Amino acid sequence: MFGAFGFFVYLCRLMKYADVILPVPLTGLFTYAVPEGMVLKVGVRVLVTFGRSKTYLGIVARLHNDKPQDYQVKVISQVMDAEPIITDHQLKLWQWIADYYMSPIGEVYKAALPSGLKAEDGYRPKTELYIQLSSKFRNEQALHVAIDMLQRAPKQLKAFLNYLELSAWDQLGAGEEQFEITREELINQGHTLQSVNALVQRGLLETYDKEVGRLNYGGEPHPELIKPLSEVQQEAYNQIQFSFLQKNVTLLHGVTSSGKTEIYIHLIQQALNKHQQVLYLLPEIALTVQMMQRLQRVFGNRLGIYHSKYSDAERVEIWQKQLSQHPYDVILGARSAVLLPFQNLGLVIIDEEHVSSYKQQDPAPRYHARSAAIMLAQMYGAKTLLGTATPSLETYHNAKSGKYGLVELFQRYKGIELPEIQVVDIKDLQHRKMMNGPFSPLLLTKTREALERGEQVILFQNRRGYAPMIECKQCGWVPHCQHCDVSLTLHRNMNQLTCHYCGYTYQVPTECPACGSKELLTKGYGTEKIEDQLRDIFPEARIARMDLDTTRTRNAYERIISDFSSGRTNLLIGTQMISKGLDFDKVSVVGILNADNLLNYPDFRAYEQAYMMMAQVSGRAGRKGKRGLVILQTKSPALPVIQQVVQNDYTSLYNSLIAERQQFHYPPYYRLVYVYLKHRSDAVVETASIEMGSRLRKWFSTRVLGPDKPAIAKVKSLSIRKLVLKLELGINMADVRKYLALAQQQMLQDKRYTSLQIYFDVDPL
To answer: Which of 27, 104, 226, 422 matches a 20 to 30 Å C-alpha distance to 541?
Structure first.
């Protein structure tokens, strides 16, 4: 009775209601009536009204016949898509993120979709102006007439003849083999816009708009350029293959410069041979620059890049390409790439899996891309490979306990030794007045020697700006942010004080507002001040700085890395950005200027994070041709973690920390949920946090700690309190989420707590 499409339309007409995801911070889906005759599919965008007058672009998540009983159902105003822009797997992942991280699914929607897909008219295809020969001149006789017409306009004649040559119309009789030419192409041949426009006004040429993509196509793939694996790499590759037969997730624990990337490339090619797609995640946008070059060389136009430094229009086009019949086979990207649509995902690679930037902090949803990617792979039946030289304790524990597979690669490529690490006691040197600012004599000597040999040096200082603070010499006054509970960082290049939490800027005072003294001194060293001092010490050096201030655009990342890779710069100063997987051939010396900045942090993960950062930045030294040298400056050389870095002894670090974690009820033996409360009034948030703690203790008893003030107790004029839940692994998390949501709801219904914010951070970092 029905054709296939007719039957589908018939079914749609039976579905009278649609549950819609709206981009609002409210829990759950919203049900709308489907007008008669409207054809809907799950995953399409629809225009709906919400509340009295607001209009939103929502996503259809479910079609059904269950009429809501307790309210008047509004009708969908308009359907925006003929085909879904969200796949079933994406909807499942969105729901999992919303449930697991206790965030409204509308927040997941807002984070996942590029802005151009979240607004009714937000995305416009890029068009370019093309020119073509007017139809009445498309024969030999007419062309001769046209040329005669232009004899007294030599510039126009030259442009016209050039057009005929470029488009192949000078080859009369070529039929349909003419080439399309943009107006810009013709002008770039040395002609003026006026000359080209005059040809259009005379009716010899016509213009038309044509949609063109913003995506950069990387040329033809060249799988023959894949390098053969060394014997040790091949063994690791074989072990990964065997592990994948038994486990869905495998950890590749390989020392820095062991050639993990080459193993990844072989695994990617194997997936492509099976007609599967690959998701390759990196923790930092900076890393995608070098990795893109390596992968594009092999996979060409089969590779797509996706991260937040791309324009919104570019991200829309990548999204649409992934839904098309010819999607990218390999997606390389940062955290947000896990939210892209895939059609046949077969392999997920999470490189530098230990890095905390995989965890989204603000705004919601506060998801961990590593966990989300593992879940996405599971939905597709795909395999996940976690790669790092310094695994997170949770991942390594999962591997050692048998939940994940484990493959180890402890030999550097071509047998190059791990760098020698020399520890410098800067407390002793400061006492003996032998330090030159933040630089020890040994570091300066080794830096000078390396530069004189034509080699490169990396210096690591995990604080940006010129100085972390300024202080009055007379009375000790320190400028603080008016909106946050932090001192202000001096950025001398911009001549301003900046809050790194709210972004507010202040003028640098010329005198102390407390006592009137003009003696305002800088305290501490940021990367900007390090750069200034190095220019004085090494005036011949070609210095670059890589931190958040110098890498605000995509091109800035590419320029800094390209300049250092090519040798145009030879001394690189940077924050943690430089510690993660960058590969430079000529770096022989790495300096860690102050390890204590990493160690003296009030967090149970401080030593783990410090070890990871120091080991990773050390791994930038001596990667090709010779053994490198690392100068590690610290006031606490006797700390076990310092010796573990020196000896590259991750196992010792793991064994010591894992025992503490078990004793004090921390991950991986317990799960953490942080409950944050924020309000403009410190008194209100204090009272609310005490009450919230009492409510939670009714259900969770001694599992609840706090409330306490966090280290930064005020941000953006909001006072903050924090409660901590320590939950044993066997606890029913569905019940936990239910009780937390109930407590949140009860608190927000209390009139005393108008404007109170309550949110949850599940598995915090």
So the answer is: 422
pLDDT in tens, 43-56: 999 999 998 889 99
Name the token pair of 560: 């800094």
* Sheet of strand 496-498, all strands in order from the earlier edge strand to the far edge: 489-491, 496-498, 505-507
Sites in the chain below the pLDDT cut of 50: 1-2, 7-9, 11-12, 174-175
Burial (0-12, 13-18, 19+ Cβ within 10 Å), 686 = middle
Which residues, other chains included, contact 757 with Cβ-Cβ below 8 Å and sequence gap of 6+?
Answer: 676, 677, 678, 679, 718
Instruction: Count other C-beta atoms under 10 Å from residue 730's C-beta.
Output: 5
Q: Which residue has the tokens 């014997």?
A: 231
Contacts of 407 (CB under 8 A, 6+ apart): 236, 239, 240, 243, 250, 251, 252, 253
Helical pair 285-299 and 554-566, crossing angle rounded to 10 deg: 70
CB within 8 Å of 559: residues ≥ 6 apart: none
Q: Cβ contacts of residue 2 below 8 Å, gap of 6+? A: 10
The pLDDT value recorded for residue 581 is 60
The CA distance from 331 to 215, in Å, is: 13
DSSP state of 228: P
Contact 388, 255 (CB under 8 A): no
94-148: per-residue pLDDT in tens?
999 999 999 999 999 999 999 889 876 766 667 778 888 998 888 888 888 888 8
- Assigned token pair, 664: 């004090």
Give the pLDDT score at 116.
Answer: 87
Spatial neighbors of 401 by CB under 8 A, at least 6 apart, are none
Say if residues 286 and 579 touch (Cβ distance below 8 Å): no
422 burial (CB, 10 Å; 0-12 / 13-18 / 19+) is middle
Question: 243 φ, ψ to 5°?
Answer: -60, -40
User: Tokens standing for 56?
Assistant: 């939103």
Q: If 0-12 CB within 10 Å is exposed, 13-18 middle and 19+ buried, where does residue 633 land?
A: buried
Backbone angles phi, psi at 677, to 5 degrees: -125, 135
| Residue 758, φ and ψ in degrees, nearest 5 | -130, 125
Comparing CA positions, the residue from 43, 361, 394 lying closest to residue 374 is: 394
Indicate the Cα dihedral angle 104, 107, 112, 116, nearest 10°: 140
Residue recorded with tokens 């225009």: 47
DSSP H helices in 274-409: 285-299, 312-323, 369-380, 393-400
Cα-Cα-Cα-Cα dihedral sign, residues 342, 351, 304, 262: negative
Q: Cα Rg for the chain, rounded, in angstroms? A: 30
3-class secondary structure, 339: helix
The answer to whether the peptide bond before residue 363 is cis (omega within 30 degrees of 0) is: yes
Model confidence, pTM: 0.83
The Cα–Cα gap between 721 and 677 comes to: 5
Q: How far, CA to CA in Å, does 446 sit from each of 429, 450, 453, 532, 590?
A: 17, 6, 11, 19, 9
